[in-house]
Design goal:
heterodimer, A: alpha/beta, nine-stranded mixed beta sheet, B: three-stranded antiparallel beta sheet, two-stranded antiparallel ribbon, binds iron/sulfur cluster
């Protein structure tokens, strides 16, 4: 059986609803206007079909997956078909009882995001009082001996806190610390000038993270993801478009990437109507950027094309207007100038207090 | 890195699962996994906390007479290092 295009991971976005409203969230900007969430039975069928297609990892995410009260059923089903199940959560709203129930049903790991180590700052970014509850949730995860990933989305206002973030991760005995810089798409693109760190901030953060990685090796994995805006080459697009991942969004659309629906002109099938296997093999959007036949110049002849696959399609679209262009984050891209100008803007703005444009319409009304 | 593992034991976060598509075993851990070779699978199975590193190598040597014991010991150590480096073993001191 050909494993070149085999999905190993299903990212199940169970809902767009979320009690928090971080300004860099990649939820659709107009999510309050989106359609109804797919029902329990459809998800159960999707997990079954995914496993048959080769999926072994399941990421339950959102929005906030804890807001689905059929989460228990999902985890039970996933465990029955031997999927390794990861819960990606803000930790709110959670109780110890529910977490232990989820574990008993087969939950394998928890990834919890925090915004800052300073409670008031954390609550300000999240737009709701949440820091202490997150801390408590992380302690529950560890007391149940579940593996814990602490995830922090880095931006100009919290990137200086790396030492404290590492100390906090050690204190809660996280197995993995993910320091990921904001991906400038969706909400974050609108807030880019307030979020993008300066090069100095970034270099300092990277050095500290690298030091911690060495010191903690084997105990805690420290992952530092540079923002594309400061790298020479773009990041690999999820190991290749339509190659290792399937995302199913709350409305049931199957996507090669969680933001693919922000690219106009791509057609997506819905799991309500189609079998996942059919979508994986025959969907025009999954096939559009598969392999290297579609690659533009300069990627076409570049040695790195099997590593980064020409970079991010969404970023190419949102910055250049053409989803089939070389990712402008690449220094070889003819559109790289646009990234450079955002970067120099960031260096001018440093020191100016930042202003976020908050998301409104928190979607609870749909619950 | 592995000199300090007395009796290696797979960490609680690890699940070993058979992969119908390839006929091999996968070692799954949060959000990712490793595809194991046949030998790696045998070693992983013996990481129960009961066997020492030497005992694991000796055990494998009985079934792989075509490979020299030195080579087997090296393979075992290399694989355990890979696991330890990813935080997939407990029993580290
Ligand atoms: S030219 Fe294309 S393939 Fe080469 S590094 Fe840039 S984005 Fe990657
Ligand atoms: S297109 Fe961009 S956002 Fe989408 S998966 Fe690829 S890298 Fe990620």
């Amino acid at each position: 059986m050909n494993n070149e295009y085999r999905p190993y991971t299903l990212i199940a976005e169970l809902t767009y609803r979320c009690p928090l409203r971080c300004p860099y969230c990649s939820n659709p900007i107009d999510y309050a206007r989106h359609g109804a969430e797919i029902d329990t039975d459809t998800w159960l069928r999707v997990f079954h079909e995914a496993e048959a297609l080769g999926v072994v990892q399941l990421s339950l995410t959102g929005g906030e997956p804890l807001l689905r009260n059929d989460l228990e059923q999902f985890i039970e089903k996933a465990s029955k078909v031997e999927l390794y199940t990861n819960l990606i959560t803000s930790g709110i709203p959670l109780t110890f009882e529910r977490l232990s129930r989820l574990q008993a049903l087969g939950l394998n790991s928890v990834q919890l995001s925090i915004q800052s180590t300073r409670p008031s700052e954390s609550d300000r970014i999240a737009g709701a009082p949440s820091f202490h509850r997150k801390l408590e949730a992380m302690q529950w995860v560890k007391s149940l001996e579940l593996p814990l990933t602490m995830n922090v989305v880095l931006h100009r206002d919290n990137i200086g806190e790396i030492p404290e973030l590492i100390a906090l991760a050690e204190r809660v005995s996280a197995d993995r610390l993910e320091l990921a810089n904001v991906q400038y798409l969706g909400w974050a693109l609108q807030n880019r000038s307030a979020l993008l760190p300066t090069r100095e901030q970034l270099e300092r953060a990277r050095t500290i993270a690298e030091h911690a990685r060495g010191r903690l090796q084997g105990k805690m994995e420290v992952v530092f993801v540079t923002p594309d805006y400061y790298s020479v080459y773009p990041k690999s697009c999820m190991d290749g478009w339509g190659r290792r991942f399937i995302v199913v969004n709350p409305e049931g659309f199957a996507l090669p990437c969680h933001l693919a629906h922000t690219i106009p002109g791509l057609h997506f099938e819905n799991v309500r109507q189609c079998h996942l296997e059919e979508i994986w093999h025959h969907s025009s959007s999954f096939n559009q950027f598969r392999g290297d036949g579609w690659l533009p110049d300069p990627c076409r002849t570049c040695d790195r094309r099997t590593k980064d696959f020409g970079g991010c399609r969404c970023q190419a679209f949102h910055v250049t207007g053409n989803a089939g262009a070389t990712d402008p984050a690449c220094f070889l891209s003819p559109d790289h100038g646009r990234i450079e100008s955002a970067r120099s803007q960031a260096s001018h703005l440093s020191g100016v207090p930042v202003m976020f444009e908050y998301r409104t319409g928190r979607g609870f009304s749909q619950a | 890195m592995t000199g300090d593992i007395a009796r290696p034991q797979l960490s609680l976060k690890v699940r070993l699962r058979f992969d119908r598509r390839t006929g091999r075993y996968l070692l799954l851990y949060p959000e990712t996994g490793l595809e194991l070779s046949r030998t790696a699978t045998e070693i992983a199975r013996l990481c129960t906390g009961e066997w020492t590193v030497d005992e694991i190598a000796q055990h494998l040597a009985q079934f792989h007479t075509e490979i020299s014991p030195v080579e087997i010991s090296r393979d075992v150590l290399d694989f355990l290092k890979t696991l330890a480096g990813r935080g997939l073993l407990q029993g580290l001191q």
